[in-house]
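User: Can you recover a sequence for this backbone? Please restate the input before giving your answer.

Assistant: Of course. Working from this structure:
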């Protein structure tokens, strides 16, 4: 177990030796995640985003007795799943991170679910807006969100311009923290 814990620390500190996407689950106790589901929600889940060198940063998820480390392709802004954190925690909506907290595997593809799908479309739109400088009017962001939801046959969340402003404020704060980090340094969040 000590070797696995050292490997988890190595993966989360500067990403030495990473050649591409990696998903590693490290069990640190004897219980499995099989017992964690929507009827037994952990009170929280810790997420550590570590700035890497090269093409990838890392997201380490700690829940129950499990640590999962996932490579996050760099994208010039905060990592995609940090955008999820901003959206889900600002709106208190169930998306990828909430589903992982509840026991689903942290995989790149999850089953369809109306609220979660609406969150994912909003994350995509907010992320695209951030790539463009983050200064599109909230009304235009809402319009793009509606178009995206229609194109993906997904119900849109009932959000308003003030929600976009609040999400952007949260993303800006995370962005400032993220930009101040050197490779190997982390931001820890709890959802």
């Amino acid at each position: 177990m000590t070797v696995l814990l050292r490997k988890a620390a190595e993966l989360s500190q500067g990403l030495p030796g990473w050649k591409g996407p990696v998903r590693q689950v490290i069990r640190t106790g004897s219980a499995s995640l099989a017992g964690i589901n929507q009827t037994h929600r952990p009170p929280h889940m810790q997420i550590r985003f570590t700035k890497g060198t090269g093409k990838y940063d890392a997201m380490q998820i700690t829940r129950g007795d499990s640590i999962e480390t996932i490579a996050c392709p760099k994208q010039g802004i905060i990592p995609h799943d940090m955008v999820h954190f901003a959206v889900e925690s600002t709106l208190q909506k169930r998306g990828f991170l909430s589903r992982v907290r509840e026991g689903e595997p942290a995989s790149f593809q999850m089953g369809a679910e109306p609220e979660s799908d609406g969150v994912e479309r909003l994350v995509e739109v907010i992320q695209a807006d951030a790539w463009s400088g983050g200064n599109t009017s909230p009304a235009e962001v809402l319009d793009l969100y509606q178009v995206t939801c229609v194109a993906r046959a997904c119900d849109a969340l009932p959000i308003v311009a003030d929600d976009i402003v609040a999400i952007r404020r949260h993303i800006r704060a995370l962005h400032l923290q993220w930009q101040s980090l050197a490779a190997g340094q982390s931001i820890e969040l709890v959802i």
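That completes the design. The beta strands are 23-27, 46-50, 56-63, 66-73, 186-190.
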